[in-house]
Design a protein that fits this description.
With 350 residues, this protein is an alpha+beta fold. The protein has helices at residues 4-14, 59-63, 68-96, 141-147, 196-200, 228-235, 264-277, 306-313, and strands spanning 18-23, 45-52, 101-104, 152-153, 159-160, 168-175, 206-216, 219-226. It has one domain. The chain has a four-stranded antiparallel beta sheet, with helices on both faces. A two-stranded antiparallel ribbon has the order 4-5. Strand 4 (152-153) and strand 5 form a beta hairpin.
Length: 350
């Protein structure tokens, strides 16, 4: 007989760092377009799987010398490769026990709600019978993780776990298996409303005074009101590119290449603060931040570092770079009028 404890043991043996279970009634009151019960009406349990974002995947951005690692190892690699493998194996085990299970990878693109804004996209899809919500359902991963007892949602709206703070990615499973749900997290408070996320957001996307409130599974949740367009601009490096050292547009490799500022305010600053408070279970031998965070001034784009000057420029080891067509050097970085309203942010944005 499959049990909640057995599922957790198997999930962690397969590679998940975290596993929590929610009963489907905890989603009562959710907007229809975000209610996972419409995906699998026969589901009795939701299994939430969590994966740590390697602290080291943020190191290169913190130092300002290596940017592709966060996009690959800290984002796409988890969402698109590692996490789905765990889902496949766990799904196979549940099916062998006779329980239909829907593995839901952390990918997006077909939702009737714009994942960036949460607005309904008119003309995107049709209800198949005029009654059901429009495809595709957009599950709110952080609320699902809350329902599964894995932690809390911080003021920045990032999900915080007692193990890793904001360094989490998630995927989930909807299963017919009647599993014992975990209690809602009531451990030590993680977010102390320090407002460092607000202070350090590169574009001021987080409001210090205005909040959004929602009631979930009998609990009142509250986080900052967020300007999604400013957030998208921040991800690209800030209003004036102060967190983006690239002169051309950073390549969109792995589908998440634009996250060049590496969640400077909402993740890295929060992580540093939580580690300094000593409240996280996973601890490190050395502090993450040893220097003041850097910024760049794009008025000095022609300036070359002295070490590069001596090792390359003076030796004639240079070539001209073709600037990407998507970058207009005469325009401001991150012009809000041109901010993408696409779906790249997905379910866990940063």
């Amino acid at each position: 007989m499959i049990t909640s404890q057995k599922i957790k043991e198997i999930a962690k043996n397969l590679g998940a760092d975290l596993c929590g279970i929610a009963s489907m009634d905890r989603f009562e009151g959710a907007p229809a377009q975000m209610d996972p019960r419409y995906i699998f009406p026969g589901a009795k349990s939701l299994i939430m799987l969590g994966y740590r974002i390697p602290r080291g995947s943020l190191r290169g951005i913190e130092e300002g010398t290596y940017f592709i690692n966060y996009s690959s190892m800290g984002y796409a690699g988890i969402n698109l490769v590692y996490g789905p493998v765990v889902l496949w194996h766990l799904n196979r085990i549940l099916e062998d026990e006779g329980f239909e299970t829907v593995p839901v990878a952390n990918v997006n693109g077909a939702e009737a709600l714009n994942p960036l804004t949460g607005n309904f996209r008119k003309g995107w899809s049709m209800s198949v019978d005029g009654e059901k919500p429009h495809p595709d359902i957009l599950i709110h991963y952080r609320i699902a993780a809350f329902c599964a007892g894995l932690g809390e949602i911080g003021y920045s709206r990032l999900f915080l776990t007692p193990e890793f703070g904001p360094r989490n990615r998630f995927n989930l499973m909807l299963t017919a298996a009647p599993l014992e749900p975990d209690p809602i997290y009531e451990g030590p408070k993680l977010c102390d409303r320090c407002m460092l996320c607000v202070k350090n957001c590169t574009t001021g996307a987080l409001s210090k005074t205005e909040t959004q409130k929602v009631r979930v599974a009998g609990h009142d949740l509250e986080w900052a009101k967020i300007n999604p367009y400013a957030c998208e601009t921040g991800i690209k490096g800030g209003e004036n590119g102060e967190k983006n050292p690239f002169i051309g547009d950073f390549p969109h490799q792995y589908g998440y290449g634009r996250a060049v500022e590496g969640a400077a305010g909402c993740m890295r600053t929060c992580m540093v603060h939580l580690e300094e408070r000593g409240v996280l279970k996973v601890k490190f031998s050395e502090p993450f931040r040893t220097e003041k965070p850097w910024t760049v001034d794009h008025k000095n784009e022609d300036k070359v570092a002295a070490i590069v000057q001596s090792q390359y420029i003076e030796k004639g080891k240079t070539e001209n770079t073709e600037v990407y067509d998507t970058y207009n050097k005469t325009s401001n970085y991150g012009n809000k009028k041109n901010a993408s309203v696409g779906t790249r942010l997905g379910r866990d944005e940063e």
